[in-house]
Amino acid sequence: MLTFTIRRLVLAIPTLMFISLVIFMLLQLAPGDPMAQVPLTVPPEVKQQMREALGLGAPVHVQYWKWLVQFFWIEPQVVIDHWFGTTFSEGKLRVISWQTRSPVMDIVIQRMPQTLWVVGMSYIVGILLALPIGIYSAYKQYSLFDQAGTFISMIGFSVPPFFSGVIVIVIFSVNLGWFPSIYDTTHVVTDWASFKVQLQQMIMPVMVLALQTTAQISRFMRASMLDNLNQDYVRTARAKGLKESAVVMVHVLRNSMIPIVTVIALGIPSIFGGAIITETLFKVNGIGQLLLTALFANDLPMVMTLTFIFAILIVAFNLIADVLYGLLDPRIRYD
């Protein structure tokens, strides 16, 4: 397993390099001009100077190499300087946002807590709801609970976040007045009262995102459990006199979790994509809204960095899923 992990980590380097090149070239081909927002009263020669200051006058391969050096060499030095008080990155040019003229990673770090509060919590809630629903639906196949779970899952699959988000705002915020419709990103949790306020403003965006997660994972969990409940080893375990709870929750569940690991692991990066719409609806000042704002402003360094971070997450959690395979199923060997 250790050899496989090291081999996959080494293979991930050229994979990520190729992904970064593809992202960079696609963004270079995208229409738009970062100077489009500059007032018309600015003289053309000043616009040209601004363009060169942003690095737009350099050849494409020079721009790509400069971004690689800044992202993989200078930004890690900034982290080391922050942790240990060193000065390795002092005076070096970082990845700068064209829109805000600030380092991109500083903005990402500022927005990350808001995204983790909403997106991270919604994914945890979705998993905690989906697993027992899928397990019990499979064990009680075609029961009333199974039919209700199937109906709710179909709703979660069919209703997009931009529609379900508006519905919950109209019902719980406008009509009932239970929860705020706008997420206050400046709110700081200091005591129990402020924590309750934080929970109140989190409930609706978490509800919208968790609905999709619950619908997807519960269906996979149900299908995987049904496939294993009819296996010979289950009948053998029951014939030996094992308790039904031990048969289902130990033997069947462990084998059923093998494909679910992939769904959960690979769903973590993709949930950030779904958060773009949800964060915009509820005015959550997070990563999703940051990416959308950067796209509208044609802020290529910001878009490039965020999309590449998503790619790193996908590659990393794909590796985590493969490693967990071997831990869940002793029959799987990578050596």
3D structure, described in words:
This protein has 335 residues and is mainly α. It has a domain at 111-328: MetI-like (MetI-like fold, Orthogonal Bundle). The chain is built from eleven helices and no strands. The longest helix has 38 residues, at 192-229. The termini are close together. The model has no long low-confidence stretch (mean pLDDT 78).
Amino- and carboxy-terminal Cα gap: 7 Å
Mean pLDDT across all residues, rounded? Answer: 78
Q: State the helical fraction.
A: over 70%
Note the overall shape. globular
Using the coordinates above, name the CATH class of one domain: Mainly Alpha
The poorly predicted ranges are none
What is the rounded Rg?
A: 24 Å
Structural class: mainly alpha
Number of helices: 11
State the total count of DSSP E strands.
Answer: 0
> Which fold name is given in CATH as the topology of one domain?
MetI-like fold
Largest sheet: none
The succession of helices and strands, N to C, reads HHHHHHHHHHH
Instruction: Report the CATH superfamily of one domain.
Output: MetI-like
In short:
The protein is mainly α. The chain has helices spanning 2-29, 44-53, 60-84, 104-139, 144-158, 161-175, 192-229, 232-239, 244-281, 287-296, 300-328. The relative contact order is 0.13.
Labels describing this entry:
single chain, 335 residues, mainly alpha, MetI-like fold, 11 helices, 75% helix, 0% strand
Give the SSE layout.
Blueprint: H1 2-29, H2 44-53, H3 60-84, H4 104-139, H5 144-158, H6 161-175, H7 192-229, H8 232-239, H9 244-281, H10 287-296, H11 300-328
Helix pairs in contact: 1-11, 4-5, 4-7, 4-9, 5-7, 6-7, 6-9, 7-9, 9-10, 9-11, 10-11
